[in-house]
Amino acid sequence: MNVGAKEKGARPARAGSIVIVSAPSGSGKSTLIRRLRASDPALQFSISYTTRPPRPGERNGREYFFVSAARFRKMAASGQFAEWAQVYGHFYGTLKRQLHAAQAQGKDLLLDIDVQGHRQVRRRVPDAVSVFLLPPSYQELERRLRRRHSDAPEAIARRLAIARRELGHWHEYDYLVVNDRLPEAVRALRAIVMATRFRRTAQRVVAQGITKTFGGKKA
Ligand code: ADP
Ligand code: 5GP
Protein backbone atom coordinates (compact mmCIF):
# COMPACT_ATOMS: atom_id res chain seq x y z
CA MET A 1 0.00 0.00 0.00
CA ASN A 2 1.27 3.39 -0.97
CA VAL A 3 1.01 5.33 2.28
CA GLY A 4 4.24 7.25 2.44
CA ALA A 5 7.98 7.44 2.16
CA LYS A 6 8.78 4.99 4.94
CA GLU A 7 7.99 1.80 3.07
CA LYS A 8 9.69 2.78 -0.17
CA GLY A 9 12.64 4.78 1.11
CA ALA A 10 13.14 7.34 -1.65
CA ARG A 11 9.49 7.83 -2.50
CA PRO A 12 8.19 11.20 -1.23
CA ALA A 13 5.41 11.08 1.36
CA ARG A 14 1.83 11.96 0.52
CA ALA A 15 0.15 14.96 2.15
CA GLY A 16 -1.83 14.49 5.35
CA SER A 17 -5.63 14.79 5.40
CA ILE A 18 -7.86 16.66 7.80
CA VAL A 19 -11.00 14.69 8.58
CA ILE A 20 -13.80 16.45 10.46
CA VAL A 21 -16.47 14.39 12.21
CA SER A 22 -19.62 16.03 13.58
CA ALA A 23 -22.82 14.55 15.00
CA PRO A 24 -25.66 15.43 17.30
CA SER A 25 -24.80 14.52 20.89
CA GLY A 26 -25.67 10.91 21.69
CA SER A 27 -25.37 9.66 18.10
CA GLY A 28 -22.39 7.52 19.12
CA LYS A 29 -19.61 9.75 17.81
CA SER A 30 -17.22 9.14 20.74
CA THR A 31 -17.82 5.39 20.53
CA LEU A 32 -17.17 5.36 16.77
CA ILE A 33 -14.08 7.55 16.98
CA ARG A 34 -12.65 5.40 19.79
CA ARG A 35 -13.02 2.29 17.61
CA LEU A 36 -11.65 4.01 14.54
CA ARG A 37 -8.56 5.20 16.42
CA ALA A 38 -7.97 1.74 17.89
CA SER A 39 -7.97 0.25 14.40
CA ASP A 40 -5.93 3.02 12.76
CA PRO A 41 -3.01 4.17 14.92
CA ALA A 42 -1.68 6.38 12.08
CA LEU A 43 -4.67 8.65 12.54
CA GLN A 44 -3.91 11.52 14.91
CA PHE A 45 -6.63 12.98 17.05
CA SER A 46 -6.91 16.73 17.52
CA ILE A 47 -7.13 17.54 21.22
CA SER A 48 -9.33 20.60 21.70
CA TYR A 49 -9.32 23.19 24.45
CA THR A 50 -12.51 23.44 26.45
CA THR A 51 -13.95 25.33 29.40
CA ARG A 52 -16.25 22.45 30.38
CA PRO A 53 -15.21 20.52 33.48
CA PRO A 54 -13.70 17.06 32.93
CA ARG A 55 -16.07 14.07 33.18
CA PRO A 56 -15.08 11.11 35.34
CA GLY A 57 -12.27 9.22 33.64
CA GLU A 58 -11.20 12.13 31.42
CA ARG A 59 -7.62 13.33 31.69
CA ASN A 60 -6.22 16.77 30.92
CA GLY A 61 -4.27 16.56 27.65
CA ARG A 62 -5.85 13.26 26.57
CA GLU A 63 -9.53 13.95 25.75
CA TYR A 64 -9.24 17.75 26.05
CA PHE A 65 -7.10 20.49 27.52
CA PHE A 66 -9.35 21.78 30.28
CA VAL A 67 -8.92 25.51 30.84
CA SER A 68 -10.70 28.38 32.59
CA ALA A 69 -12.99 30.72 30.65
CA ALA A 70 -10.49 33.56 31.24
CA ARG A 71 -7.62 31.55 29.72
CA PHE A 72 -9.79 30.46 26.79
CA ARG A 73 -10.83 34.05 26.07
CA LYS A 74 -7.19 35.17 26.13
CA MET A 75 -6.19 32.40 23.71
CA ALA A 76 -9.08 33.29 21.37
CA ALA A 77 -8.21 37.01 21.51
CA SER A 78 -4.58 36.33 20.63
CA GLY A 79 -5.65 34.33 17.56
CA GLN A 80 -4.43 30.92 18.68
CA PHE A 81 -7.53 29.04 17.53
CA ALA A 82 -8.20 27.88 13.98
CA GLU A 83 -11.84 27.72 15.08
CA TRP A 84 -13.78 28.01 18.29
CA ALA A 85 -17.42 27.86 19.30
CA GLN A 86 -19.79 27.77 22.21
CA VAL A 87 -21.45 24.37 22.51
CA TYR A 88 -23.91 23.39 25.26
CA GLY A 89 -22.88 26.46 27.25
CA HIS A 90 -19.12 25.84 27.17
CA PHE A 91 -16.33 27.01 24.88
CA TYR A 92 -14.41 24.62 22.66
CA GLY A 93 -11.56 25.41 20.29
CA THR A 94 -8.98 23.83 17.98
CA LEU A 95 -5.45 25.24 18.01
CA LYS A 96 -4.05 26.54 14.73
CA ARG A 97 -0.77 24.96 15.80
CA GLN A 98 -2.38 21.52 15.85
CA LEU A 99 -3.59 21.81 12.26
CA HIS A 100 -0.30 23.23 11.01
CA ALA A 101 1.82 20.59 12.75
CA ALA A 102 -0.21 17.73 11.25
CA GLN A 103 -0.11 19.24 7.77
CA ALA A 104 3.64 19.92 7.96
CA GLN A 105 4.32 16.35 9.06
CA GLY A 106 1.99 14.79 6.46
CA LYS A 107 -0.13 13.24 9.23
CA ASP A 108 -3.85 12.57 9.05
CA LEU A 109 -5.72 14.50 11.70
CA LEU A 110 -9.21 13.73 12.96
CA LEU A 111 -11.24 16.64 14.34
CA ASP A 112 -14.25 15.89 16.52
CA ILE A 113 -15.96 19.29 16.36
CA ASP A 114 -19.46 20.70 16.08
CA VAL A 115 -21.22 22.17 13.03
CA GLN A 116 -20.00 25.73 13.78
CA GLY A 117 -16.40 24.55 13.99
CA HIS A 118 -16.81 22.55 10.79
CA ARG A 119 -17.78 25.68 8.87
CA GLN A 120 -14.79 27.60 10.17
CA VAL A 121 -12.27 24.85 9.40
CA ARG A 122 -13.70 24.36 5.89
CA ARG A 123 -13.13 28.05 5.20
CA ARG A 124 -9.53 27.77 6.37
CA VAL A 125 -8.78 24.33 4.88
CA PRO A 126 -11.03 23.88 1.83
CA ASP A 127 -9.83 20.35 1.09
CA ALA A 128 -10.61 19.04 4.58
CA VAL A 129 -12.94 16.04 4.37
CA SER A 130 -16.04 16.04 6.53
CA VAL A 131 -18.35 13.35 7.84
CA PHE A 132 -21.70 13.85 9.51
CA LEU A 133 -22.97 11.02 11.68
CA LEU A 134 -26.70 10.53 11.99
CA PRO A 135 -28.59 8.53 14.59
CA PRO A 136 -31.13 6.13 13.04
CA SER A 137 -34.04 8.20 14.42
CA TYR A 138 -35.01 10.78 17.03
CA GLN A 139 -36.45 8.03 19.23
CA GLU A 140 -33.21 6.03 19.12
CA LEU A 141 -31.16 9.15 19.90
CA GLU A 142 -33.30 9.78 22.96
CA ARG A 143 -32.88 6.15 24.05
CA ARG A 144 -29.08 6.37 23.68
CA LEU A 145 -28.85 9.59 25.65
CA ARG A 146 -30.94 8.10 28.48
CA ARG A 147 -29.02 4.83 28.47
CA ARG A 148 -25.69 6.66 28.70
CA HIS A 149 -26.65 7.97 32.18
CA SER A 150 -24.24 10.89 31.88
CA ASP A 151 -26.79 13.71 31.85
CA ALA A 152 -29.68 14.88 34.01
CA PRO A 153 -33.15 14.84 32.33
CA GLU A 154 -33.02 18.62 31.70
CA ALA A 155 -29.61 18.29 30.04
CA ILE A 156 -30.96 15.46 27.86
CA ALA A 157 -33.90 17.63 26.80
CA ARG A 158 -31.46 20.43 25.92
CA ARG A 159 -29.21 18.08 23.92
CA LEU A 160 -32.25 16.76 22.00
CA ALA A 161 -33.40 20.28 21.15
CA ILE A 162 -29.90 21.16 19.92
CA ALA A 163 -29.69 17.83 18.04
CA ARG A 164 -32.79 18.79 16.07
CA ARG A 165 -31.08 22.02 15.00
CA GLU A 166 -27.72 20.38 14.26
CA LEU A 167 -29.29 17.68 12.12
CA GLY A 168 -30.34 20.38 9.67
CA HIS A 169 -26.66 20.84 8.72
CA TRP A 170 -26.10 17.40 7.19
CA HIS A 171 -26.06 18.80 3.67
CA GLU A 172 -22.88 20.82 4.40
CA TYR A 173 -20.82 17.63 4.80
CA ASP A 174 -19.04 15.43 2.24
CA TYR A 175 -20.09 12.09 3.74
CA LEU A 176 -23.08 10.93 5.74
CA VAL A 177 -22.93 7.84 7.94
CA VAL A 178 -25.92 6.51 9.86
CA ASN A 179 -24.80 4.93 13.12
CA ASP A 180 -27.35 2.15 13.25
CA ARG A 181 -25.30 -1.02 13.61
CA LEU A 182 -22.01 -0.02 15.21
CA PRO A 183 -19.63 -2.36 13.29
CA GLU A 184 -21.04 -1.19 9.96
CA ALA A 185 -20.69 2.47 10.91
CA VAL A 186 -17.07 1.89 12.01
CA ARG A 187 -16.33 0.18 8.69
CA ALA A 188 -17.86 3.09 6.77
CA LEU A 189 -15.81 5.63 8.71
CA ARG A 190 -12.64 3.60 8.17
CA ALA A 191 -13.33 3.42 4.43
CA ILE A 192 -13.78 7.20 4.25
CA VAL A 193 -10.50 7.86 6.08
CA MET A 194 -8.74 5.36 3.84
CA ALA A 195 -10.16 6.98 0.69
CA THR A 196 -8.92 10.44 1.74
CA ARG A 197 -5.37 9.07 1.66
CA PHE A 198 -5.67 8.31 -2.04
CA ARG A 199 -7.15 11.61 -3.19
CA ARG A 200 -5.23 13.36 -5.94
CA THR A 201 -4.43 16.25 -3.59
CA ALA A 202 -2.93 13.82 -1.07
CA GLN A 203 -0.95 11.86 -3.66
CA ARG A 204 0.20 14.76 -5.86
CA VAL A 205 3.79 14.81 -4.53
CA VAL A 206 4.02 11.03 -4.90
CA ALA A 207 2.82 11.19 -8.52
CA GLN A 208 5.21 14.06 -9.25
CA GLY A 209 8.11 12.05 -7.86
CA ILE A 210 7.22 9.06 -10.02
CA THR A 211 6.70 11.27 -13.08
CA LYS A 212 10.20 12.66 -12.54
CA THR A 213 11.68 9.16 -12.86
CA PHE A 214 10.11 9.08 -16.34
CA GLY A 215 11.80 12.38 -17.18
CA GLY A 216 8.38 14.04 -17.29
CA LYS A 217 7.32 17.50 -16.19
CA LYS A 218 5.68 18.32 -12.84
CA ALA A 219 1.89 18.67 -13.05
P1 ADP B 1 -21.73 10.93 21.43
O1 ADP B 1 -20.24 10.93 21.56
O2 ADP B 1 -22.19 11.11 20.01
O3 ADP B 1 -22.41 11.90 22.36
P2 ADP B 1 -21.64 8.25 22.63
O4 ADP B 1 -20.53 7.61 21.87
O5 ADP B 1 -21.38 8.64 24.05
O6 ADP B 1 -22.28 9.47 21.82
O7 ADP B 1 -22.88 7.23 22.55
C1 ADP B 1 -24.09 7.47 23.21
C2 ADP B 1 -24.64 6.15 23.76
O8 ADP B 1 -25.07 5.35 22.67
C3 ADP B 1 -23.59 5.34 24.51
O9 ADP B 1 -24.20 4.72 25.63
C4 ADP B 1 -23.12 4.31 23.47
O10 ADP B 1 -22.67 3.11 24.08
C5 ADP B 1 -24.40 4.07 22.67
N1 ADP B 1 -24.16 3.73 21.23
C6 ADP B 1 -23.22 4.22 20.40
N2 ADP B 1 -23.35 3.68 19.16
C7 ADP B 1 -24.40 2.82 19.22
C8 ADP B 1 -25.04 1.94 18.26
N3 ADP B 1 -24.65 1.86 16.98
N4 ADP B 1 -26.09 1.23 18.70
C9 ADP B 1 -26.54 1.31 19.98
N5 ADP B 1 -25.97 2.10 20.94
C10 ADP B 1 -24.92 2.86 20.56
P1 5GP C 1 -18.37 16.94 24.66
O1 5GP C 1 -18.36 18.01 25.71
O2 5GP C 1 -19.58 16.04 24.76
O3 5GP C 1 -17.06 16.21 24.58
O4 5GP C 1 -18.51 17.68 23.24
C1 5GP C 1 -19.62 18.49 22.99
C2 5GP C 1 -19.58 18.97 21.55
O5 5GP C 1 -18.48 19.85 21.36
C3 5GP C 1 -19.42 17.86 20.52
O6 5GP C 1 -20.34 18.12 19.47
C4 5GP C 1 -18.00 18.03 20.01
O7 5GP C 1 -17.88 17.64 18.65
C5 5GP C 1 -17.84 19.54 20.14
N1 5GP C 1 -16.43 19.93 20.19
C6 5GP C 1 -15.40 19.32 20.82
N2 5GP C 1 -14.26 19.98 20.61
C7 5GP C 1 -14.55 21.02 19.81
C8 5GP C 1 -13.77 22.07 19.22
O8 5GP C 1 -12.56 22.18 19.39
N3 5GP C 1 -14.45 22.98 18.46
C9 5GP C 1 -15.80 22.91 18.23
N4 5GP C 1 -16.33 23.83 17.45
N5 5GP C 1 -16.55 21.94 18.77
C10 5GP C 1 -15.94 21.01 19.54
In short:
This protein is α/β, with parallel strands linked by helices.
Low-confidence stretches: 1-8
> What is the residue-averaged pLDDT?
91
CATH architecture heading: 3-Layer(aba) Sandwich
Q: Can you identify the CATH class? A: Alpha Beta
N-end to C-end Cα span: 23 Å
Could you walk me through the main structural features you see in this protein, from its secondary elements to its overall organization?
There is one protein chain. The chain has 219 residues and is of the alpha/beta class. It has a single domain (13-206), classed as Rossmann fold, CATH 3.40.50.300. The protein contains nine helices and nine strands. It has helices spanning 5-8, 29-39, 69-77, 96-105, 115-124, 138-148, 153-167, 182-196, 200-213, and strands at 18-22, 43-45, 48-50, 64-66, 81-87, 90-95, 108-112, 129-134, 175-178. The strands form two sheets. Strands 2-7-1-8-9 form a five-stranded parallel beta sheet, sandwiched between helices. It has a four-stranded mixed beta sheet with strand order 4-3-6-5. A hairpin with a 2-residue loop joins strand 5 and strand 6. The longest helix is centred in the C-terminal third of the chain and has 15 residues, at 153-167. The protein is globular, with a radius of gyration of 19 Å. Mean pLDDT is 91; it is low at 1-8. Residues 25, 48, 52, 83, 85, 87-88, 92-94, 112-114, 116-117 line the site of guanosine-5'-monophosphate.
Primary descriptors:
219 residues, Rossmann fold, binds adenosine-5'-diphosphate, 9 helices, binds guanosine-5'-monophosphate, disordered N terminus, four-stranded mixed beta sheet
